[in-house]
């Protein structure tokens, strides 16, 4: 009967039995080996497309561990206490598109550690212990579109960490220790459309920042970065910017030397604004585009919303 046939296939997939510590779903070519393993199981079916190795104890990912899994598309190593990834760890994964290394203990990444992953689209490295992104860390990732580096301790990113031709579109660097975002300090891929820098300690955003080269950027998140001052030209080259988040900073004024024609969402609440004539433009913009936000914006000197200060603005003008 059908159930008997299914059970046989469950045990013998492509002539290879499912490893004893794993469960295999033949129809989807998925293998799950989760929960307390101390080594990567041997004898995994060579045509596996998704491999789940999360919630294990795998401090070292050695070279060639997955060399026979040329059909693998997704590899999950979340919360597996990984602390060291060797060059060659991902050798043979010529089809891999999704790699989950989040929620581990990785402190550093060696040059070219991902060089074999030419088809990788999404890389999760969030919630590790990285302090620096060294030169050529992402060498070889010629298909990478999304990169998650949130919730690390990153304070420095080498100007040559990314390849110049990188197709990266979405980069999450929130909740790190970045303070210097000048163009000299780091160089981000210029095709980025989404950049999240929230929850860092940036304080000042000058004209000569990493943003100057990001002409395709659509969404920029700078909330809770201790921003005290923003150059009037800081965003002047962001011709396609639609969403700008500046909430929960230390800004008392804001001025754009060049109008951001594409901007559709501007979030500025949670700042100690000085509501004088310099902010008339901001009040009018919020009234036209975001009435909810304008009610949230409060002034440092007078405990009233910007919306309620129109008379003060009129007098100042």
From TrEMBL:
Which Pfam family is an annotated match for this chain, by its short name? LRR_8
* GO terms under cellular component: plasma membrane
Keyword vocabulary terms for this entry: Glycoprotein, Leucine-rich repeat, Repeat, Signal
Q: Which residues form a coiled coil?
A: none
Q: Does the keyword Protease apply?
A: no
- Name the PROSITE patterns for this protein: LRR
UniProt name for this protein: LRRCT domain-containing protein
């Amino acid at each position: 009967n059908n159930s008997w046939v299914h059970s046989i296939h469950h045990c013998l997939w492509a002539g290879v039995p499912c490893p004893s510590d794993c469960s295999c779903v033949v129809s989807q070519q998925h293998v799950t080996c989760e929960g307390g393993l101390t080594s990567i199981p041997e004898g995994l079916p060579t045509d596996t497309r998704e491999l789940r190795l999360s919630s294990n104890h795998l401090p070292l990912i050695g070279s060639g561990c997955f060399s026979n899994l040329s059909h693998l598309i997704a590899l999950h190593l979340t919360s597996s206490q990984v602390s060291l990834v060797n060059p060659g760890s991902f050798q043979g994964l010529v089809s891999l598109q999704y790699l989950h290394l989040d929620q581990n203990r990785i402190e550093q990444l060696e040059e070219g550690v991902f060089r074999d992953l030419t088809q990788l689209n999404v890389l999760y490295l969030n919630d590790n212990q990285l302090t620096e992104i060294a030169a050529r860390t992402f060498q070889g990732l010629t298909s990478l579109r999304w990169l998650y580096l949130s919730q690390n301790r990153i304070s420095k990113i080498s100007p040559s960490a990314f390849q110049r031709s990188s197709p990266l579109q979405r980069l999450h660097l929130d909740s790190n220790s970045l303070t210097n975002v000048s163009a000299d300090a780091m160089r981000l891929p210029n095709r980025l459309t989404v950049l999240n820098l929230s929850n860092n300690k940036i304080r000042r955003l000058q004209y000569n920042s990493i943003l100057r080269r990001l002409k395709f950027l659509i969404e920029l998140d700078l909330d809770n970065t201790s921003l005290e001052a923003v150059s009037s030209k800081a965003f002047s080259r962001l011709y396609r910017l639609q969403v700008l988040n500046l909430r929960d900073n230390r800004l008392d004024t804001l001025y754009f030397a060049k109008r951001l024609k594409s901007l559709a969402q501007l979030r500025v609440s949670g700042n100690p604004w000085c509501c004088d004539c310099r902010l008339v433009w901001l009040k009018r913009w919020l009234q036209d585009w975001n009435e909810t936000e304008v009610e949230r914006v409060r002034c440092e000197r007078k405990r009233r919303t910007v919306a309620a200060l129109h008379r003060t603005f009129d007098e100042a003008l």
